[in-house]
Amino acid sequence: MTVFDASTPFILIARIKVKPGKVQEYLELAAKTDAAVEASEPGMLHHTFDQDPENPLCFTWSEVYKNDNAFLAHLANAPVAEYLQGHAQLGDGFTVEVYGTVGDQCKTALDATGLPVKIFETKCGYSRV
């Protein structure tokens, strides 16, 4: 049986709403951030920005982290801070869902973002790493 803790992968879904008339500008911000994350975060295993098929103002960041340390590195990454500043200007909503078990340090860091966060802790399953 797999033990899920701070050392195991997890999924983070960030649901974003963009202000009307700001989608193109937001897409440019997202693309810039994505390129920077790809170049600087080896612990980010999957990182996509997906548009809601029913609401063109809604998007989802789909992120898979190697472990808690990868997420903590993400939060400390300067391009991510720049993205959050840009979101404050262009966005109109931001919620976070975590799927998987994370440790106390990661939970504290999530709480410190000030964003609405919901953590779905793993009860069974496996991860191929």
UniProtKB/TrEMBL annotation:
Signal peptide coordinates: none
Gene3D superfamilies: 3.30.70.100
ABM domain: residues covered: 10-102
SUPFAM superfamilies noted in UniProt: Dimeric alpha+beta barrel
Pfam families for the chain: ABM
Protein name: ABM domain-containing protein
Species, as recorded: Prochlorococcus marinus (strain MIT 9211)
